[in-house]
Amino acid sequence: MNSLILFFKGFIIGIGKIIPGVSGSLLAISLGVYENALEKINHFWKETKESIFYLAPLGIGILLAVLLGSGVILHFLTKYYLFTIALFIGLILGTVPDLVQKEKLSNFDFVLIFMIVWFFFYIEKNFSFPEFIPDKTIFSYVYIFILGIIDAFTTVVPGISGTATFMMLGCYSFILNLFSHPLAYFSFSCFFVFGLFIGVISIVKLVSYLFLHHRHGLWIWILGFLFSSILSLLMKIIDLVNQSNLFGVLLLFFLGILFINLFRKE
Questions:
Q1: Residues near 210 by Cβ (< 8 Å), separated by ≥ 6?
Q2: CA–CA distance, 226 with 232 (Å, rounded to integer)
Q3: What is the number of other CB atoms lying within 10 angstroms of the CB of residue 213?
Q4: By CB atoms within 10 Å of each CB, which of 27, 109, 186, 252 scores lowest?
Q5: For the segment 135-191, what is each residue's pLDDT rounded down to a tens digit?
Q6: Is 159 helix (H, G, I), strand (E, B) or coil?
Q7: Is the dihedral of CA 8, 179, 72, 17 positive or negative?
Q8: Which among 156, 30, 36, 31 has a CA at the least distance from the CA of 97?
Q9: How many CB atoms lie within 10 A of CB 228?
Q10: Alpha carbons 7 and 29: distance in angstroms, whole number
């Protein structure tokens, strides 16, 4: 039963990875698996059996969500963009009370969080890249390898949305297609996975060190990333909300909050 729960938690985290503005690692924290997963990865060779039993169902859930969900998410974002984003705003917002209670925050801490939110809002509004169209040049392969490292960074570091980052870099459509059809883009997939692997191994150690030695400061950044994600998603849909769709938006928003809280208690 525990493995099944880990699988479903992994599936939720994986879906979070491919939704614009959503951080899979924040969902992992809220679902109570983030720090345990970091510990299992860091001590994999010392506690191999326990690590495999914990990481395998979690990882399979994430992988299946990414492979199976990319096409579905692309469909829902195309056909039902407003309602899909409303649901995931609810999922993210549902994590806030639990995360805020993890650290005692001062007024100065909230000022720092506000500054982080403002910084990322400014970056998103003022910086963007042209759409990435891959070819068979060395530059494309190197760039895809770097995208794998970026995906590792946004996966491991709580609060940073990988999809929002890829959208800013003009790579979101390419990444979704890569996830949806990995065999059709086999050579690109290999370079991306290699970058992802190298990135995860390196960044997990860094984040584990920060949790151990600079936990309070890290939580300030995490909460800053969290509120940045919520603001980013709200800005994407605020102009689309009207009287005809308000009920559906609110319904999915509250369903997202309810779902994340019910599942977190498992």
A1: 217, 218
A2: 10
A3: 9
A4: 186
A5: 888 998 999 999 999 888 888 877 677 776 787 777 877 887 888 788 888 899 999
A6: coil
A7: positive
A8: 30
A9: 25
A10: 15
Element (H, E) at 195: helix 186-213
Place of tokens 């963007």: 128
Q: Is 255:4 a contact under the CB 8 Å cutoff?
A: no
Question: CB under 8 Å to 23, separation ≥6 — which residues?
Answer: 16, 92, 154, 158, 159, 160, 161, 162, 225, 226, 229
CB 259 within 8 A of CB 88: no
Give the model confidence (pLDDT) of 25-43 as tens digits: 777 877 778 888 888 888 7
- What is the rounded CA–CA span in Å between residue 55 and residue 144? 26
Residue with tokens 């995906």: 151
The single-letter code of the amino acid at 199 is G
Whole-model pTM: value is: 0.69
CB 94 within 8 A of CB 260: yes
d(CA 148, CA 167): 15
Backbone angles phi, psi at 140, to 5 degrees: -60, -45
